[in-house]
Amino acid sequence: xxxxxxxxxxxxxxxxxxxxxxxxxxxxxxxxxxxxxxxxxxxxxxxxxxxxxxxxxxxxxxxxxxxxxxxxxxxxxxxxxxxxxxxxxxxxxxxxxxxxxxxxxxxxxxxxxxxxxxxxxxxxxxxxxxxxxxxxxxxxxxxxxxxxxxxxxxxxxxxxxxxxxxxxxxxxxxxxxxxxxxxxxxxxxxxxxxxxxxxxxxxxxxxxxxxxxxxxxxxxxxxxxxxxxxx
Length: 231
Ligand SMILES: Nc1ncnc2c1ncn2[C@@H]1O[C@H](COP(=O)(O)OP(=O)(O)OP(=O)(O)O)[C@@H](O)[C@H]1O
Prior knowledge:
alpha/beta; binds adenosine-5'-triphosphate; four-stranded antiparallel β-sheet; globular
Protein backbone atom coordinates (compact mmCIF):
# COMPACT_ATOMS: atom_id res chain seq x y z
CA UNK A 1 0.00 0.00 0.00
CA UNK A 2 2.77 2.48 0.97
CA UNK A 3 6.12 1.67 -0.61
CA UNK A 4 9.41 3.51 -0.43
CA UNK A 5 12.04 2.21 -2.80
CA UNK A 6 15.71 3.22 -2.80
CA UNK A 7 14.94 6.38 -0.85
CA UNK A 8 17.75 8.79 0.00
CA UNK A 9 16.81 11.85 2.05
CA UNK A 10 18.24 14.37 4.49
CA UNK A 11 18.48 17.98 5.47
CA UNK A 12 20.47 20.37 3.26
CA UNK A 13 23.85 18.81 2.63
CA UNK A 14 23.34 16.20 5.39
CA UNK A 15 22.22 12.83 4.06
CA UNK A 16 20.30 10.85 6.70
CA UNK A 17 18.55 8.00 4.83
CA UNK A 18 20.57 6.02 2.32
CA UNK A 19 18.90 3.85 -0.29
CA UNK A 20 16.10 2.79 2.07
CA UNK A 21 13.37 0.31 1.13
CA UNK A 22 10.27 0.35 3.34
CA UNK A 23 6.87 -1.18 2.66
CA UNK A 24 3.57 -1.29 4.53
CA UNK A 25 0.71 -3.45 3.30
CA UNK A 26 -3.03 -2.94 3.72
CA UNK A 27 -4.01 -3.49 7.35
CA UNK A 28 -0.42 -4.31 8.25
CA UNK A 29 1.20 -3.16 11.50
CA UNK A 30 4.87 -2.25 11.22
CA UNK A 31 7.32 -1.50 14.01
CA UNK A 32 10.15 0.78 12.90
CA UNK A 33 13.04 0.33 15.31
CA UNK A 34 16.56 1.64 15.66
CA UNK A 35 18.84 3.55 18.00
CA UNK A 36 18.72 7.31 18.62
CA UNK A 37 19.55 9.30 15.51
CA UNK A 38 19.08 6.30 13.18
CA UNK A 39 16.70 8.28 10.98
CA UNK A 40 13.30 6.91 12.11
CA UNK A 41 11.64 10.32 12.32
CA UNK A 42 13.26 11.30 9.03
CA UNK A 43 11.77 8.18 7.43
CA UNK A 44 8.30 9.00 8.78
CA UNK A 45 8.63 12.59 7.51
CA UNK A 46 9.66 11.32 4.09
CA UNK A 47 6.86 8.73 4.00
CA UNK A 48 4.29 11.44 4.78
CA UNK A 49 5.53 13.99 2.23
CA UNK A 50 6.99 16.48 4.71
CA UNK A 51 10.49 15.82 3.43
CA UNK A 52 11.23 15.26 -0.25
CA UNK A 53 13.69 12.49 -1.02
CA UNK A 54 16.71 13.36 -3.17
CA UNK A 55 16.49 9.91 -4.77
CA UNK A 56 14.08 6.98 -4.83
CA UNK A 57 10.34 6.46 -5.26
CA UNK A 58 7.32 6.69 -3.01
CA UNK A 59 4.18 4.86 -4.09
CA UNK A 60 0.83 4.84 -2.36
CA UNK A 61 -2.08 2.62 -3.37
CA UNK A 62 -0.39 1.94 -6.70
CA UNK A 63 0.31 5.59 -7.62
CA UNK A 64 3.70 7.21 -7.61
CA UNK A 65 3.54 10.25 -5.32
CA UNK A 66 7.25 11.12 -4.99
CA UNK A 67 7.73 14.88 -4.64
CA UNK A 68 4.03 15.71 -4.27
CA UNK A 69 3.15 18.27 -1.56
CA UNK A 70 2.43 17.01 1.97
CA UNK A 71 -1.28 17.93 1.64
CA UNK A 72 -1.52 15.45 -1.20
CA UNK A 73 -0.26 12.71 1.10
CA UNK A 74 -2.66 13.64 3.92
CA UNK A 75 -5.67 14.02 1.62
CA UNK A 76 -4.92 10.59 0.24
CA UNK A 77 -5.22 9.12 3.74
CA UNK A 78 -1.64 9.15 5.05
CA UNK A 79 -1.76 10.46 8.63
CA UNK A 80 1.33 11.34 10.68
CA UNK A 81 1.03 11.65 14.46
CA UNK A 82 4.31 13.43 15.15
CA UNK A 83 6.57 13.21 18.15
CA UNK A 84 5.60 16.07 20.45
CA UNK A 85 1.97 15.23 19.66
CA UNK A 86 1.13 17.92 17.08
CA UNK A 87 -1.67 19.42 19.12
CA UNK A 88 -2.13 23.11 19.94
CA UNK A 89 -1.50 23.47 23.70
CA UNK A 90 -2.96 26.98 24.05
CA UNK A 91 -6.21 26.06 22.29
CA UNK A 92 -9.05 24.21 23.98
CA UNK A 93 -9.81 20.55 23.37
CA UNK A 94 -12.86 21.62 21.37
CA UNK A 95 -10.75 23.93 19.16
CA UNK A 96 -8.15 21.21 18.64
CA UNK A 97 -10.86 18.77 17.57
CA UNK A 98 -12.22 21.40 15.17
CA UNK A 99 -8.80 21.70 13.51
CA UNK A 100 -8.17 17.95 13.53
CA UNK A 101 -11.53 17.29 11.88
CA UNK A 102 -10.53 19.37 8.83
CA UNK A 103 -14.00 20.60 7.91
CA UNK A 104 -15.87 17.65 9.40
CA UNK A 105 -18.90 18.72 11.50
CA UNK A 106 -17.60 19.64 14.96
CA UNK A 107 -20.38 17.77 16.78
CA UNK A 108 -19.50 14.60 14.92
CA UNK A 109 -15.79 15.04 15.75
CA UNK A 110 -16.58 15.59 19.42
CA UNK A 111 -18.82 12.53 19.47
CA UNK A 112 -16.13 10.36 17.87
CA UNK A 113 -13.39 11.62 20.19
CA UNK A 114 -15.58 11.22 23.30
CA UNK A 115 -16.51 7.71 22.32
CA UNK A 116 -12.82 6.87 21.99
CA UNK A 117 -11.83 8.66 25.20
CA UNK A 118 -14.72 9.87 27.40
CA UNK A 119 -12.27 12.14 29.26
CA UNK A 120 -11.90 14.30 26.15
CA UNK A 121 -15.63 14.91 26.03
CA UNK A 122 -15.51 16.12 29.64
CA UNK A 123 -12.68 18.55 28.96
CA UNK A 124 -13.81 20.35 25.83
CA UNK A 125 -13.30 23.82 27.31
CA UNK A 126 -9.93 23.07 28.88
CA UNK A 127 -6.75 24.16 27.09
CA UNK A 128 -4.98 21.13 25.66
CA UNK A 129 -1.67 22.10 27.26
CA UNK A 130 -3.17 22.01 30.75
CA UNK A 131 -4.16 18.35 30.47
CA UNK A 132 -1.93 15.50 31.63
CA UNK A 133 0.60 14.04 29.17
CA UNK A 134 -1.55 10.96 28.71
CA UNK A 135 -4.67 13.01 28.01
CA UNK A 136 -2.75 15.15 25.51
CA UNK A 137 -1.64 12.00 23.72
CA UNK A 138 -5.27 10.79 23.64
CA UNK A 139 -6.23 14.08 21.97
CA UNK A 140 -3.39 13.65 19.47
CA UNK A 141 -4.53 10.09 18.73
CA UNK A 142 -8.12 11.21 18.20
CA UNK A 143 -6.97 12.78 14.93
CA UNK A 144 -6.40 9.32 13.50
CA UNK A 145 -10.09 8.59 14.06
CA UNK A 146 -11.40 11.88 12.64
CA UNK A 147 -9.88 11.90 9.18
CA UNK A 148 -10.57 8.32 8.03
CA UNK A 149 -6.93 7.62 7.20
CA UNK A 150 -5.77 4.53 5.35
CA UNK A 151 -2.42 4.51 7.12
CA UNK A 152 -1.34 6.08 10.41
CA UNK A 153 2.32 6.65 11.29
CA UNK A 154 2.95 7.28 14.98
CA UNK A 155 6.22 8.75 16.23
CA UNK A 156 7.05 7.90 19.86
CA UNK A 157 3.46 7.87 21.11
CA UNK A 158 4.49 6.87 24.62
CA UNK A 159 7.34 9.34 25.10
CA UNK A 160 7.31 10.65 28.67
CA UNK A 161 4.13 8.80 29.66
CA UNK A 162 3.54 6.68 32.77
CA UNK A 163 3.10 2.92 32.11
CA UNK A 164 -0.68 3.05 32.62
CA UNK A 165 -1.02 5.88 30.09
CA UNK A 166 1.14 3.91 27.64
CA UNK A 167 -1.28 0.95 27.97
CA UNK A 168 -4.23 3.26 27.23
CA UNK A 169 -2.51 4.58 24.11
CA UNK A 170 -1.72 1.05 22.89
CA UNK A 171 -5.32 -0.02 23.47
CA UNK A 172 -6.40 2.81 21.16
CA UNK A 173 -3.81 1.83 18.56
CA UNK A 174 -5.10 -1.75 18.75
CA UNK A 175 -8.66 -0.54 18.17
CA UNK A 176 -7.46 1.53 15.23
CA UNK A 177 -5.83 -1.51 13.67
CA UNK A 178 -9.03 -3.54 14.06
CA UNK A 179 -10.77 -1.00 11.79
CA UNK A 180 -8.44 -2.16 9.01
CA UNK A 181 -6.08 0.81 9.05
CA UNK A 182 -2.37 0.22 8.39
CA UNK A 183 -0.11 1.35 11.20
CA UNK A 184 3.56 2.24 11.56
CA UNK A 185 4.91 2.73 15.08
CA UNK A 186 8.23 4.21 16.09
CA UNK A 187 8.55 3.28 19.73
CA UNK A 188 11.15 3.38 22.47
CA UNK A 189 9.38 0.50 24.25
CA UNK A 190 10.52 -2.04 21.68
CA UNK A 191 8.57 -4.96 23.19
CA UNK A 192 5.33 -2.93 23.16
CA UNK A 193 5.75 -2.17 19.49
CA UNK A 194 6.68 -5.76 18.59
CA UNK A 195 3.65 -7.09 20.49
CA UNK A 196 1.21 -5.40 18.11
CA UNK A 197 3.37 -5.52 14.96
CA UNK A 198 3.22 -7.97 12.06
CA UNK A 199 6.53 -6.81 10.64
CA UNK A 200 9.61 -5.12 12.06
CA UNK A 201 12.10 -2.92 10.27
CA UNK A 202 15.40 -1.93 11.85
CA UNK A 203 17.18 1.22 10.78
CA UNK A 204 20.75 2.01 11.77
CA UNK A 205 22.65 5.12 10.69
CA UNK A 206 20.18 5.74 7.89
CA UNK A 207 20.46 2.23 6.44
CA UNK A 208 17.73 -0.43 6.70
CA UNK A 209 19.60 -3.33 8.26
CA UNK A 210 16.74 -5.77 8.85
CA UNK A 211 13.12 -6.41 7.94
CA UNK A 212 11.04 -9.45 8.76
CA UNK A 213 8.16 -10.89 10.80
CA UNK A 214 7.90 -9.23 14.22
CA UNK A 215 7.34 -12.59 15.93
CA UNK A 216 10.70 -13.88 14.76
CA UNK A 217 12.59 -10.95 16.19
CA UNK A 218 14.89 -11.69 19.04
CA UNK A 219 15.60 -8.15 20.00
CA UNK A 220 18.78 -8.83 21.97
CA UNK A 221 20.26 -10.77 19.06
CA UNK A 222 19.22 -8.19 16.49
CA UNK A 223 20.61 -5.32 18.47
CA UNK A 224 23.89 -7.12 19.07
CA UNK A 225 24.25 -8.37 15.52
CA UNK A 226 23.26 -5.26 13.61
CA UNK A 227 23.78 -2.44 16.01
CA UNK A 228 26.67 -3.65 18.12
CA UNK A 229 24.94 -2.73 21.35
CA UNK A 230 23.22 -4.61 24.13
CA UNK A 231 19.44 -4.15 24.27
N1 LIG B 1 15.99 19.40 10.72
C1 LIG B 1 17.16 18.77 10.74
N2 LIG B 1 18.27 19.35 10.21
C2 LIG B 1 19.46 18.70 10.21
N3 LIG B 1 19.66 17.47 10.70
C3 LIG B 1 18.60 16.85 11.24
C4 LIG B 1 17.30 17.47 11.29
N4 LIG B 1 16.45 16.60 11.89
C5 LIG B 1 17.18 15.51 12.20
N5 LIG B 1 18.46 15.65 11.81
C6 LIG B 1 19.55 14.67 11.97
O1 LIG B 1 19.19 13.49 11.27
C7 LIG B 1 19.62 12.34 11.96
C8 LIG B 1 18.43 11.41 12.16
O2 LIG B 1 17.47 12.02 13.00
P1 LIG B 1 16.04 11.39 13.28
O3 LIG B 1 15.31 12.34 14.17
O4 LIG B 1 15.42 11.03 12.00
O5 LIG B 1 16.44 10.06 14.06
P2 LIG B 1 15.55 9.13 14.99
O6 LIG B 1 15.93 7.73 14.65
O7 LIG B 1 14.13 9.51 14.91
O8 LIG B 1 16.15 9.48 16.42
P3 LIG B 1 15.46 9.48 17.89
O9 LIG B 1 15.14 8.08 18.22
O10 LIG B 1 16.59 10.03 18.73
O11 LIG B 1 14.28 10.39 17.81
C9 LIG B 1 20.23 12.81 13.28
O12 LIG B 1 21.62 12.81 13.13
C10 LIG B 1 19.69 14.22 13.41
O13 LIG B 1 20.61 15.05 14.10
